[in-house]
Design a protein that fits this description.
This protein is α+β, with helices and mostly antiparallel strands. Helices cover about 25% and strands about 25% of the residues.
Length: about 350
């Protein structure tokens, strides 16, 4: 059988539920521009139904705090739309109102949060500490170690299929490089470089964890929103590599594989796939970017899996399905990416 895994960044999913995890299917505005909450929820129901995935790594999932529960909200959503993927879990809660969550079909998979790495002190560690800790790295070779934390700690999962296949999954939402809150060109440039440094440091931390899994011959999948991609901005020249390239592997290191990343690396000024679509008000136009990835270890890549970006304008099957096409545009500013792994029972 084929195992279908998806990653999907849902724009402000949190705003579609109340504190008891009930869906706010009403005419009030959602956080999504010019969209009502009922409209966004309905569109998401169409998208998740169309995906029919065994599991979805949801980026920007509803919040968990003293009053709210990510799992309760997502399981309510799954019941309402009669989804196979109907059981939810998270790892370390985020400091933001956005969690990384795993919504899966319990008839096909068992999953548990299984964080790796040692618990770090506040001083931090240079050896891939647990993702709720502090990482120390000298980014610019000035003999000064920067301290890095994840605002959204990656979700590390041990997953076992109903047939006994074992997978390691890491869900990722790396820091945005956008200079939010900066006033003036110099401030924007300074904050852009600082955010880029933090994003790269997070990816270096992730890559240390990847190295450990590959050395152990684990079947590994790293999936989510990296807020980055090969050739995506001018700061890549300043730092040498994109964060995505670092996680995939550089030099002689064993490499993860994602065909969309490979395509972008091979054609930086030509055709490249995209997974997100944003409206830029000053330019009065949409901008598209490749931000969402599903990277797999060499053993999984050898099984010849099938990747798909559910893009409403670039996928012929979606173009031919108007309801799904419109739902993808209404549901989020990102589009889902799926991975179909063959011969997984």
């Amino acid at each position: 059988m084929t195992l279908r895994l998806a990653t999907y960044n849902v724009e402000w999913f949190n705003g579609l539920f109340d504190d008891r995890g009930r869906m706010l299917a009403d005419a009030e505005p959602s956080a999504r521009y010019k969209t009502r909450r009922a409209e966004q929820l309905g569109a998401l129901g169409v998208v998740f139904t169309g995906l029919d995935a065994d599991a979805v790594m949801i980026i920007e999932a509803p919040d968990t705090n003293g009053h709210r529960s990510t799992a309760r909200a997502l399981e309510t959503f799954a019941r309402h739309f009669n989804l196979r993927a109907r059981k939810a879990l998270i790892g370390f809660p985020s400091d933001t109102e956005q969690e990384i969550a795993f919504l899966y079909d319990p008839d096909r998979l068992t999953a548990r949060h299984d964080p790796q790495g040692a618990i770090s002190t506040t001083h931090g560690s240079t050896e891939a500490p647990r993702f709720d800790g502090t990482f120390r790295y000298d980014l610019d070779a000035d003999m000064v170690f920067e301290t890095i934390r994840f605002s959204k700690p990656p979700l590390e999962l041990a997953v076992t299929t109903s047939g006994g296949a074992v997978l390691r999954l890491i869900g990722v939402h790396a820091k945005s490089k956008n200079p939010h809150g900066a006033a003036g060109r110099e401030a924007m440039l300074r904050l852009s470089i600082e955010n880029r440094r933090k994003q790269l440091a997070q990816c270096l931390w992730l890559r240390q964890r990847v190295d450990g899994h590959l050395a152990a011959n684990d079947s590994l999948i790293v999936m989510g929103d990296f807020n980055d991609g090969p050739g995506i901005d001018e700061f890549e020249k300043l730092f040498g590599h994109s964060g995505v390239e670092i996680v995939l592997g550089t030099g002689e290191a064993p490499r993860l594989y994602d065909p969309h990343a490979a395509m972008a690396l091979q054609s930086r000024v030509a055709f490249a796939p995209t997974t997100a679509r944003f409206y830029l008000a000053p330019q009065k136009r949409f901008f598209e970017a490749l931000l969402d990835f599903i990277m797999v270890s060499p053993d999984l890549a050898a099984s010849q899996p099938d990747w798909r970006i559910w893009h409403p304008f670039n996928d012929p099957a979606i173009i031919a399905a108007p309801e799904l096409r419109e739902a993808l545009l209404q549901a989020s500013d990102h589009f889902p990416v799926t991975l179909d792994l063959p011969n997984v029972s």
